[in-house]
Amino acid sequence: MRRFYSTCGSGSRILVLVLAVILCLVFGACSFKKKPVKRIPTAKRPPKKDVIRPADTQPVERPVTPQSTASQKLIRDGLVLLDQKNYELAAVRFQDAINVDSRNGEAYYYLALADFYLEQYDESIGLLDKAKALLLHDQRWLERIENLKASILVDEGDKTQAQPL
Amino acid sequence: MLRFYKGKKSYGPKKKEAAKGKWTFRRKLKLVWRLFQIFILLAIVGAVFLYFHAKKVDHLIEVKFDRPQKWNLPSRIYADAEYLFPGVHIGERQITTKLDRLGYRNVGSTIKTPGDYARGSNYLDIYLHDFVYPYEDFKGFPVRVVLSGDRVQDIKNLTTDSLMELVKLEPEEIASIHDVKMESRTFVTIDEVPPALVEAIILIEDERFFKHKGVDPTGIARAALANLKSMRIVQGGSTLTQQLVKNFFLHSRKSLWRKLNEAVIALRIERKHTKREILQAYLNEIYLGQRGASSISGVGEASKVYFAKEVGQLTLGECALLAGMIRWPGRYNPARKPEAAKERRDFVLARMLGAGMITRRQYDAAIAEKIITPKVSMRTIRAPYFIYFVKKQLIDLYPQEVLESEGLRIFTTLDMTYQRIAEKAVSQGLAELEKTYAKRLPEDHAGKLQGALIALQPSNGYVRALVGGRSYGDSQFNRVTQAKRQPGSTFKPFVYLTAFDPKRAENIFTPATIVDDVPFTVQSGGKLWTPKNYDKKSHGLVSLRKALYNSYNITTAKVAILAGLKNVKKAARDAGITSELMAVPSMSLGAFEVSPLEMAAAYTIFPNAGLRAVPIAVMNVVTKEGDVLERKRVKIKRKFDPGPVYLTTSVLKDVLDKGTGRRARAMGFKGIAGGKTGTTSNYRDAWFAGFTTNLLSVVWVGYDDNAEMKLSGSSAALPIWTNFMKKAQANATQDFPSPPDVILVKVNPPTGLLVNRSCPEFEYEPFIEGTEPNISCEDFIPPVDQEVEF
């Protein structure tokens, strides 16, 4: 057993040593390969671009100001009139809401809605474009705008373009 | 005669007497017969005449009096209403002046009735007027506008004691369209008139109104006696019906024929109409004074003018005064002669008390009433060029005679505060230019230096102010709508807008693109054309940003050619320029004539992120009954992608901050704004077109006959624009929003390429994503060999 061990031990030691050397060589070679190689420059590395997306820095929610509050009040009045199917007067209220705060995107949307009910489709589409430009960061509003646009196109008979979200 | 002579000779006294008697009898008989014949003849002629005259009178009554609408009611033109809400600066918006113009009465302390206002140290109380808007009737109520300094802090409804988000002031009447009679009248029914006023008028003017049949012999006799006693005319014998006839059918010149006619017509009217009808006509017809060129006719109009109220809202004292004024409106005008007016009112009240029409308590209260009238204002047409513009728009649908007679109410988009600021800016600006640049302007020029200003609200295209010239009295030519002038460099933004738009331009440009600003020559229309810069210099390599804000002609012409002249023309058309344009290089420098209105409409695309707003001046046309005949809708339409518009707008902001428009900053305009100067060759036209997010205005200065004035856009038009915008848009703090496809990239300005260590100078420049540079500044190749072909 001992002999066996000794015989076996010396042989295996040699084997282990050989294997270790092979492994060292292999790993050494591999690790050597991983080191950066100085290439011959074929094209310049693209320069670093310093980019800012100003649209992303704009707040999603508009700050509440007395002006926006007054404009929202007119929208609420207009919505009551819309419910009563008094579209003309509702349109006047939404128009006033725009006059008070020309950056109130909702006012343009509702004016477009009133114009839609009054079958003024061209005007309605233009107003929706304006609403979209102002409510760009609000997905919920964008969906509503696109849905209304689709309804207008359906009503106008242009079903090919009408793709509600 | 012979026989008589013979008789006289041959007969004695007795015979002579007898002969004379015999002859006298026969002669008398003959004379009587002759007289009878004449009388019969006259009676027949008179009867025939009276018959035909009565027929004529009846016809006259039928045509003029029996119709439902007895009077030509002038159409009235209104400015836009005004909203007050927290944050509004009442000083900037000139609210108290506006209240005066609206006919509100400054009562000093407590507001009691519609039309009253009172200013305290930290509040403004207003008792709002009733007003019939298109689609709705507004009932006035008292409000308290709580102020912090001059800024609105809160608005409280004094009836309900609740806070309100906003309150609306009714629109101002800016003009009325009269017929030749120039009568201002607000029609009222007899039911709308307070009984006290009707009773007072009857008492003072025709006590026996319900007893006579149009002409009152008793009254005439009594008046004659009274006049005889005083040996002067102290009383008139005319009944209310006769007064009505005189004002309605006849004239005020005194003559027997008129008096006779008056009586005949009065009798005929009384036969055909009830006393109630006659009284109603009288209340609407009676002359109650003068306001400017037009007369105040009827109690409805008079109560508005003298007391800022609807007739139904008059107090007893006011009723008495109005009744008393009929006799001599000029002498008892409460605004001009308060003492005489008070005396007259007290006299009428005393008569009413004496006749038992009012109680002692009512009398005492009415006597104690203070007579407060609105500020006297001569009714001159406000914003005359705008009115002309509106009338021109209406005339196709509503002919002049309809406007003069149907009492239409025309609601416009005009902002009277902006209009007044604009008028002042133009008149003062032109006077200032004439003073400052007297040596540069042509000597002894036939016409005066002229100017024009138009202001639009870009979000909806509302025309907010319009000044078509220096003085409407001197020249009615509207330079905003009728003048076609070369726009010069104010056209350039459309060149750059095309160039920045990858969908429109033949070559892609960005504000950072570098172009060589050196002279070049192209052949255009069979001729060689060489653009030159304003300063007669070439500027070498410049970015498009710098070229636009400094208004370099050479670069602009080059860019226009490289972007495609047809594309530039299409962009201008899409923006709304409808005048003739030709796709030739000189178009890029504004060689084709446009009107200031067209230019303003085209510029709406910049603050509107590519949406074009069609200018609107008339919002609604409403009948006197309140039916809406016409409603103009807001028309905005997307014409450009927001990205290229944003890039152009960002450069136009630099025009004010560091370019040809920087004088605006020096003059104290602080708002966030963009704009462009314009000067045409030989300095014939000076322009400035500029905008904030909320207001856009275009100013033109020049001579009507195209004479040289040697003034540039920045020295002539820009100061007027600045003075207008400084007041109208003092708080323009909103910036133009960036669209999602726009990125800011750090670039090296001299090269327009990415920054690195070798060229560290940088600026953040906006690009439409995908058009930004990808190479660094050290790889910059100057565009010296850039070829311009056309």
Structure description:
The complex is a heterodimer of chains A (165) and B (790). Chain A has 2 domains: 1-35; 64-156, Serine Threonine Protein Phosphatase 5, Tetratricopeptide repeat (Alpha Horseshoe), CATH 1.25.40.10. Chain A has helices at 2-34, 54-57, 66-83, 87-100, 105-117, 121-134, 139-156, and one strand spanning 51-52. Helices cover 69% and strands 1% of the residues of chain A. Chain A is built from 7 helices and 1 strand. Chain A is an all-alpha fold and 165 residues long. In chain B, strand 8 (142-148) and strand 9 form a beta hairpin. The model of chain B is unreliable at 1-11 (pLDDT under 50). In chain B, 38% of the residues lie in helices and 18% in strands. Chain B is of the alpha+beta class. Among the domains of chain B are: 2-65; 80-176, 2-Layer Sandwich (Penicillin-binding protein 1b fold); 178-368, Orthogonal Bundle (Penicillin binding protein transpeptidase fold). In chain B, the strands form 10 sheets. In chain B, strands 3-4-5-8-9-10 form a 6-stranded mixed beta sheet, with no helix packed on it. Chain B has a 5-stranded mixed beta sheet with strand order 12-1-16-24-25. Chain B has a 5-stranded antiparallel beta sheet with strand order 18-17-29-28-27, sandwiched between helices. At the A-B interface, strand 1, helix 3, helix 4 and helix 6 of A face strand 26 and strand 30 of B. Strand 1 (51-52) of chain A pairs antiparallel with strand 30 of chain B.
